[in-house]
Amino acid sequence: MSGTEIVGGLEREIRVHLDPEALRKHGLALNDVIRRLKEENIEQFGGRVTTGPKEIIARTMGEYRNLEDIRNIPLIRDGLSMVYLRDVAKVLDSHEEARVITRLNGDPCVKLSVLKQSTANTVEVSISSSWADW
């Protein structure tokens, strides 16, 4: 048995910076925005369609594809107006805060360690983790 450890690099993170004044103006709370973000970002069973001997299973595709999908989430739909997330927030493509910075010759890098358990066969672990397999 063996394992791997990856250190360094950046993890993508979408940030939603809410404008408190805009939220108040539209009568929205933080929980309203969180709920709508969760509701719009799910895939779920959509039903079955039967055509003769065939049955097709349908599902909804609610996963965000890009920043515009997120910015265009409707928060309020009434007969008079529509309020979208973009009206109360800035949506930015960013990355998580780096807690560990790995460098090689002074340049940022990603370190991949292959770990061997004490009971594992050293030769098998080294062969299975060779660059030829990557």
Key terms:
134 residues, alpha+beta, Multidrug efflux transporter AcrB TolC docking domain, DN and DC subdomains, two-stranded antiparallel ribbon, 4 helices, flat
Explain what the structure shows:
This protein has 134 residues and is α+β, with helices and mostly antiparallel strands. It has a single domain (2-133), classed as Multidrug efflux transporter AcrB TolC docking domain, DN and DC subdomains, CATH 3.30.2090.10. It has four helices and ten strands. It has helices at residues 20-25, 30-40, 67-71, 122-128; strands at residues 2-8, 12-18, 43-51, 54-61, 74-77, 82-84, 89-95, 103-104, 107-108, 110-116. Strands 1-10 form a two-stranded antiparallel ribbon. The two termini are 18 Å apart.
Class from secondary-structure proportions? alpha+beta
Name given to the CATH architecture: 2-Layer Sandwich
User: Strands of the largest sheet, in order across it?
Assistant: 1-10
CATH superfamily label: Multidrug efflux transporter AcrB TolC docking domain, DN and DC subdomains
Give the helix level as a range of percent.
10-25%
Give the low-pLDDT segments: none
Beta-strand proportion? 35-45%
Strand segment count = 10
Largest sheet: 2 strands, antiparallel
> Whole-number average pLDDT?
80
From the alpha carbons, calculate the radius of gyration and give it in angstroms: 24 Å
Overall structural domain count: 1
Q: What distance separates the N and C termini?
A: 18 Å
CATH class: Alpha Beta
Q: Give helix and strand order, one letter per element, not per position.
A: EEHHEEHEEEEEEH
What shape does the CA trace take?
A: flat
Helix run count: 4
User: Which topology does CATH recognise?
Assistant: Multidrug efflux transporter AcrB TolC docking domain, DN and DC subdomains
